[in-house]
Design brief:
The chain has about 425 residues and is of the alpha/beta class. The protein contains 12 helices and 17 strands. It has 2 domains: about 25-50 and about 300-415, Lyase, Ornithine Decarboxylase, Chain A, domain 1, CATH 2.40.37; about 55-285, Alpha-Beta Barrel (TIM Barrel), CATH 3.20.20.10. Bound molecules: pyridoxal-5'-phosphate (PLP).
Length: about 425
């Protein structure tokens, strides 16, 4: 071998080693860990062979207890969109000793008024005035008194003008809470001077009462990776909130709802004295995948999707790929087996048995989704795959009644909110 040939052979072997080293590792670990194996047995016993949303109440309770402890002495307002079942909300509020709820959707707001009439409700987003009008039209007489228990969110002078017209037209008293921009830049009042002007308009109108402020700061959690930046931005959030409060304090008493935070940031508020007297939290109680962030390390995932396997094979045969199917399997051991499950394409990732993943070439399906795994994945037809939702708010509404789990067994079924009214 001359020098040139030697160098070429050396380069080829280096490239070969590099390619082999970057080969995906086999991610299988056998079948379900004992937690999911128990849930699978119980799903079989209940004859539930369809996609099912499970909420583990033992874990939910632990998350709730952590939350109440960490949040004190502030009040807890539960975020209804993230746990969209009236019974689950009622359960959480009772255990936490709270009657406060944040609502984001007109039909669900009407359902809260019907089914949880003792609740104090703050809107989490400014509703179009037509939706607010519809709320009053759909409101059945009952225990819920919107004039006392409901705060509409107002994000600027034009929205206030519309709500004043609604109040005059319907001869209503409305309580309003003002959305302030504390740094998220998702709307709301940007400057304290705007609040002063808005309050002047409120004072002109005996039908409108100021009930408080709401400043949401989800962006602060996103800065966790930049050294020191999270603490600095939290300090800026506090300053902005205080500047709005100064305008209020010059004119009003203290009995206001001063709302802040959300799951990603509620624990950071331990660093801040005063300013907000209540924090809104929902997702942290079930901790979907998007909430695997440092500030929520003390929380545990508590919601899963379980769905049966319809088909299982030891092949990979994506139409049109021909021999590349085999090459792909040789390259990636996690493509050795193919499964089709009942349903799919949820905002969720497969978590048990470990080592399953969607197939980006075959594509996603809400009818029968393809998953692949290595020969080490113990999974057959009629077994179950468990997914962990990446968020709860839209996912929990897709499966009908929630299945509640205690001690690894399904103990009840609770309906989710309805899109009626
Ligand atoms: C105004 C407001 N507050 C609080 C939250 C926090 O909700 P969660 O705790 O479910 O993240 C949200 C979420 O979008 C929100 O919009």
């Amino acid at each position: 071998m001359n020098r040139r040939q030697f160098l070429f052979a050396a380069a080829c072997s280096a490239a070969g080693v590099a390619v082999l080293a970057s080969r995906p590792a086999n991610r299988a670990e056998g079948g379900h860990p004992s937690y999911f194996a128990q849930l699978e047995r119980d799903l079989r016993e209940h004859g539930l062979a369809r996609p099912t949303l499970l909420v583990d109440l033992d874990r939910f309770d632990r998350n709730l207890d952590v939350l109440v402890r960490e949040l004190a002495p502030r009040h807890f307002r539960i975020v209804a969109k993230s746990l969209p079942s009236p019974r689950l909300l009622e359960y959480a509020m009772r255990r936490a000793g709270s009657d406060r709820l944040m609502s984001f959707h007109q039909p669900f707001l009407n359902q809260v008024a019907r089914e949880l009439p003792a609740t104090d409700v703050l809107l989490g987003k400014p509703m179009p005035v037509v939706a607010a009008d519809r709320f009053y039209r759909a409101l059945a007489p009952g225990g819920f008194d919107p004039g006392r228990q409901l705060q509409w969110l107002i994000d600027g002078p034009e929205r206030l003008r519309q709500y004043r017209e609604l109040a005059a037209g319907r001869e209503l008293s409305l309580r309003i809470n003002v959305e302030i921009d504390v740094g998220l830049h998702r709307g709301g009042l940007a400057e304290p001077a705007e609040l002063a002007r808005l309050l002047a308009a409120v004072d002109e109108d005996p039908r409108i009462e100021l009930a408080g402020l709401m400043g949401y700061d989800a962006h602060v959690a996103k800065l966790a990776s930049v050294a020191g930046e999270q603490a600095r931005e939290l300090g800026r959030v506090e300053q902005r909130y205080r500047a709005f409060l100064d305008v209020l304090r010059a004119r009003r008493g203290e009995a206001l709802t001063l709302n802040a935070a959300g799951s990603p940031t509620y624990r950071l508020w331990n660093e801040i004295d005063g300013v907000a007297n209540e924090l809104a939290v929902g997702s942290a109680l079930v901790k979907p995948l998007d909430f695997d962030i440092p500030s929520l390390e003390v929380h545990t995932p508590a919601a899963w999707i379980a769905t049966p396997v319809l088909k299982a094979s030891d092949a990979l045969s994506i139409p049109g790929l021909g021999a590349l199917n085999r090459l792909w399997q040789l390259w990636d051991p996690n493509r050795e087996r193919t499964f089709f499950v009942y349903g799919g394409y949820w905002k969720a990732r497969p978590v048990s048995p470990p080592g399953l993943e969607e197939n980006p070439v075959f594509g996603r399906s809400s009818n029968q989704e393809m998953l692949n795994g290595s020969a080490g994945v113990e999974l057959e037809v009629d077994d179950y795959v468990f997914y962990r939702p990446t968020q709860s708010e839209s996912v929990m509404l897709q499966f009908g009644d929630l299945a509640l789990v205690r001690g690894g067994q399904i103990v009840d079924f609770w309906p989710v909110f309805e899109e009626r009214g």
